Amino acid sequence: MGVPCFLPLALRHRAEEERGDFVNAVKTLLRRSPLLYRWLIYLISPVCYVGMTAPRFLRSLPVDALVLNVGSGVHRYTTTMVNLDMYPYSGVDVVADATALPFPDNTFDGALCECLLEHVTRPELVVREILRVLKPGGRVYITVPFVYAFHACPHDYYRWSIMGVRELCREGDIVDVASRSGPTSALVSQLVTWLAIVLSFGSERLYNVWSMILLVPIAPLKFFDHIFGRFPTALHGTEGFYVIMAKRGGAEEAEGIESTEE
Known about the structure:
Elements: H1 9-18, H2 22-30, H3 34-44, H4 54-59, E1 67-70, E2 81-85, E3 94-95, E4 108-113, H5 123-133, E5 134-145, H6 162-168, E6 173-179, H7 183-200, H8 204-213, H9 215-218, H10 225-228, E7 240-246
Parallel strand pairs: 1-2, 1-4, 2-3, 4-5
Antiparallel strand pairs: 5-7, 6-7
Helix pairs in contact: 7-8
């Protein structure tokens, strides 16, 4: 039995076409091996996560919580998680548009939305849809970029300051919002982009190749964010933010999560 697909036919064709460019084709190939992909992300991604992480957030939920992962890619954190993505990667349970989630109201106890909102044209609608399918009092963990280079996957539209994050999540109750990484991750992203531009001499193809090659020697600098990313002033130039938001109407206040924001 195939993965249930709720995408309109026109959107399916568009999704397949967009996966065909060089960078996204490489990512699609690597995602066929989820374990390898996760290790590569850890080692050569420009981002060093020092704030609240998705696994830590999930541990704050009840053991039997039903969780929706919107824009999951190949990540499957728990056996009770429903993975939703626009592409049928390995581990995806439902193929659908994040702006029109194919679930009834008040279905899930929790949700994840990592590294997705900058890639959709209407991020506020995705947030609204996630809140709709959460049960009252249910919580969602969201990450968004702030100081980060352009990275079409296949599109890239938005960046958010900490004020922008609060505005984006105004329809829910914000439990916690803070830097997810730090200024060194932002520096790595920009430095790799700058060097790729200089070394590619105007060639888009060379730029894409250099963007991946340069991550190997430069990305390890990101681990300095285990120091600098914890400074209270990091939010002025951090790579991105995380936010934990609760759906209004719950009988209990969201508890049990320590903020890393000072």
